[in-house]
């Protein structure tokens, strides 16, 4: 056009200029001569590359590596010391080379945890407090009169963990009927259990509040045969009629088993409840060896009558076998006083047989009563003394 003559360039001149540039730079002339389709394809390719880069950048920005690196940059910029005054609090390598800082010596210690020389006490507990032991207690504690007085007697410490308790919090303490002490609510969460001392001395099976350590101990050891009734209380069997019957059955059980375990015929004898020898083996070993030993569970079964129902069939079938078995009758006794050999005696016949506590010899109950009235000594005991 006339307004812009310098921009009017013919197509031939354009071709000539492109060929000259290609010859000058050794480039193929077709590079500079692109069709409309080629231009459109290149534009679409560039747009797709840009979109893929944007997606890749968004994925990279949300990756764990990108987040971690950005956090490191932020921390390094925020906590980077700017001057020498900013790093005065740091410990140099010369002061602590490859070693941890020493622990402080001014540890807070209660005054009652120090000995007379001012040094800490390292043995179990202190002079005023010791943690409770997991042990059996067979004594009755005095009835609780005042929690405050008992806490004062405990030097205002919990009976379980030994924590110091302020006087104003004495009402929050809980009494343990097993240890006879007060505990904090953390050591005493309100559990209840039967108390062995109350069972032995009072035949009382009520549940009383106990601490957590007492509850777990009694629960875990309720089957342990630790109660020697006659040793703990000499009037244990005389107070309750049911205990007298169970004692008699326990004595019979022990003596019958002494014959059954040595008899070969008993291992082949079949009863209504099964093999005779196998029935005795179902009982705990302590019941077959000692008539005075009980566990907490045994005394509970005595109260319910279950222990008597378990022992009675064993004694009945065992006694019937021993009295009729030739092998067992060979180990019977003869009365030391009347010497009637046709009337054999067995130690489990407690109804009409007397057993000497010194030598263990057997005699009829009537013969023993007559000897005691005449104040005569036991014949077997005399023979033993003469042979010594």
UniProtKB/TrEMBL annotation:
Keyword Lyase on entry: no
UniProt feature, compositional bias: Polar residues: 1-12
Domain of life (superkingdom): Eukaryota
Keywords from the named record: Autophagy
Entry-linked Pfam families: RH_dom, RUBC_PIKBD
Residues of the signal peptide: none
Rubicon Homology domain location: 174-388
GO molecular function: phosphatidylinositol phosphate binding
Stretches for region Disordered: 1-20
Gene Ontology BP annotations: autophagy
Protein's name according to its UniProt entry: DUF4206 domain-containing protein
Source species of the chain: Onchocerca flexuosa
């Amino acid at each position: 056009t006339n307004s812009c003559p310098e921009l009017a360039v013919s197509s031939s001149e354009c071709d000539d200029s492109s060929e000259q540039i290609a010859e000058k730079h050794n480039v193929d002339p077709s590079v500079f001569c692109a069709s409309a389709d080629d231009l459109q394809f290149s534009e679409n390719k560039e747009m797709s590359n840009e979109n893929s880069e944007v997606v890749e950048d968004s994925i990279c920005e949300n990756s764990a590596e990108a987040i971690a690196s950005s956090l490191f940059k932020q921390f390094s910029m925020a906590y980077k010391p700017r001057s020498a005054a900013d790093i005065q609090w740091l410990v140099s390598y010369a002061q602590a080379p490859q070693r941890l800082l020493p622990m402080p010596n001014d540890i807070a210690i209660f005054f009652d945890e120090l000995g007379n020389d001012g040094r800490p006490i390292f043995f179990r507990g202190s002079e005023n407090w010791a943690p409770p032991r997991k042990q059996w207690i067979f004594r009755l504690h005095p009835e609780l009169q005042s929690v405050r007085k008992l806490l004062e007697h405990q030097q205002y410490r919990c009976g379980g963990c030994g924590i110091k308790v302020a006087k104003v919090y004495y009402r929050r303490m809980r009494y343990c009927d097993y240890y006879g002490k007060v505990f904090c609510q953390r050591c005493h969460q309100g559990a209840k259990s039967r108390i062995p001392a109350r069972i032995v001395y009072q035949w009382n099976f009520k549940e009383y509040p106990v601490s957590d350590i007492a509850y777990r101990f009694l629960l875990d050891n309720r089957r342990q045969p630790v109660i020697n009734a006659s040793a703990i209380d000499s009037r244990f069997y005389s107070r309750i009629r049911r205990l007298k019957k169970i004692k008699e059955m326990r004595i019979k059980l022990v003596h019958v088993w002494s014959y059954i375990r040595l008899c070969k015929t008993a291992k082949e004898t079949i009863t209504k409840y099964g093999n005779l020898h196998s029935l005795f083996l179902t009982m705990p070993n302590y019941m077959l060896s000692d008539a005075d030993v009980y566990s907490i569970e045994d005394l509970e079964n005595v109260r319910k009558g279950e222990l008597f129902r378990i022992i009675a069939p064993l004694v009945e079938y065992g006694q019937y076998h021993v009295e009729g078995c030739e092998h067992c009758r060979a180990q019977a006794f003869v009365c030391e006083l009347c010497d009637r050999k046709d009337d054999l005696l067995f130690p489990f016949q407690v109804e009409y047989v007397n057993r000497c506590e010194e030598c263990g010899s057997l005699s009829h109950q009537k013969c023993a009563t007559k000897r005691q009235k005449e104040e005569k000594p036991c014949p077997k005991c005399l023979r033993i003394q003469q042979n010594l």
